[in-house]
Amino acid sequence: MAQGCAKGRRNAGWLQAGAEPSASGGGGVRGLVIHNVSVLGATPASAELSWLCSNGTLHGSVSAVVPPMAGCVAPKHLKSDDRGSAAQRRRIASNAASHRQRLRGQRLRGVARQESVINVRDFGATGSGACMYGEGSAPQQPQPYGECSGDHDDHAAVQQAVNAAIAQRRPLYFSSGVYMVGKPIVINGSDVSIFGDYWQDTVIAAAPGCKGAEAVLLFPTLAEGNHFGWNEVSGLSVNANNFANFGIQALTMTRSRFTGIGAFRAQAGLRLASGWELHIEDSYLGCAGGGNDVGVLATAAINSLVVLNSQFEGDHVGIAVNDGSNVRLEGNVIEGMGGAAIIVNSVAGVVVSAN
C-alpha cells in the first residue's frame, strides 16, 4: 500500500489534565510530571495546558522544554516550538522499520513451522477488499485509513480461525490484504497472538453489517473479578469505516500489548477499560485521511498504561485517559488534532515525556 499520513498539521490544543474548574475541586490529577515536551506546530494561543487539582487551576501555553512538576504549579508561558518533531518522526520511522523486520521474521518462522501458526486464509478468508483514499482532487490510492469496501464478507472465516487459535493456543496470522467483516470479530480468550504483515499491508475493516456494532475486534467484558491476559495484536490495521463504534475494544484485559498497529475511522481507534499493564507501541492511531474521534480512549480504572513511540494525526483528541493510575505517555507524535492532543482526568501518577 502507499505510505504515510500527511504531516505538519497543527493541534487545536496540547494537554488538558483534569476536569473543567468547579466549586468542588474534584476530578483532578495527582502526580503529574511533564518534561522534554514539544508541541508540534502549535502557537501560544492554541497550545493550552490546563488542569484542576485540589488547590486550584492552571492555565498556560507550553512547548519546548517544561521542567518536571507534580500537582498544581504556577502557570508556565513558553514560546511555541516544533524542534522535536523531525527527530521524533525519524525515530518512529526507524522503530516502525525495525518492527516490520521483526514481524517478517515471525512470519518466516511460522512458514518454516506451519504447525505453529494458524492462517486465516486456510479457513476461507479472502482479504479481497480495498481501502482507498485521495485528498482533494488527487487520485485515489490504497491506504489503510481510507474508505474500505469489498464484495466478500470474511467474518465467518476469520471468526472460525480466531476460535481455532484460542482452542489450540497457536498464533493467528493475517497475510496482506483487506479483510471485510460484517460483524465484530470476538476474541474470547487469553494468550492470543494476532499478527499481520505490516499495518499498511494487512487491514481488518468493518463492512456495512457492522453499523452500530461495538468494535471491529472485540475482547469482550468478563464477569467482575475475571480478566483476559497476555494477548498481543501486532502488524495490522483495524478500520472501523465509520460503521463500528471502535476499532479495537479491550475490556477487562491485563498484561497485553498492541504493537505496530493502525486504527482508523472510529469513535475511538483503541478503547481500553478496567485493565492493567497494557502497552501500546510503534502504532498509528489516526491519519489525516481517516482520523478517529479519539485515538486511544482509556477509562474505568485503567492502571499501568504505556503509550510509547506512536503517531496520532487527524483525530479530534489523541489520547484520553479518565480514571486510572500509573500512566506513561512517551515519545509520541501527536498533531492535527481538532481538540486537545492529550486529556487526563482522575488519574494518579502521570508521566508525559518527549512527545
Could you characterize the architecture of this molecule?
The protein is mostly beta strands and 355 residues long. It folds into 2 domains: 9-81 and 317-355, no CATH class; 116-315, Pectate Lyase C-like (3 Solenoid), CATH 2.160.20. Helices cover 12% and strands 41% of the residues. The protein is built from 2 helices and 28 strands. It has an 18-stranded mixed β-sheet that branches. The chain has a 5-stranded parallel β-sheet with strand order 10-13-17-20-23, with helices on one face. The protein is globular. Residues 19-26 and 35-84 have low confidence and may be disordered.
Shape estimate: globular
Assigned CATH superfamily of the largest domain? Single-stranded right-handed beta-helix, Pectin lyase-like
CATH topology of the largest domain: Pectate Lyase C-like
What's the total count of β strands? 28
Number of domains: 2
| Beginning-to-end CA distance, first to last residue | 28 Å
What's the Cα radius of gyration? 20 Å
Q: Summarize model confidence as the mean pLDDT.
A: 76
Number of helices: 2
What CATH architecture label of the largest domain applies?
A: 3 Solenoid
Helical/strand content category: mainly beta
What is the succession of H and E elements? EEEEHEEEEHEEEEEEEEEEEEEEEEEEEE
CATH class of the largest domain: Mainly Beta
How is the main sheet built? 18 strands, mixed
Which regions have little confidence, pLDDT < 50, spanning 5+ residues? 19-26, 35-84
- Beta-strand content: 35-45%
Oligomer: single chain
* Helix proportion range: 10-25%
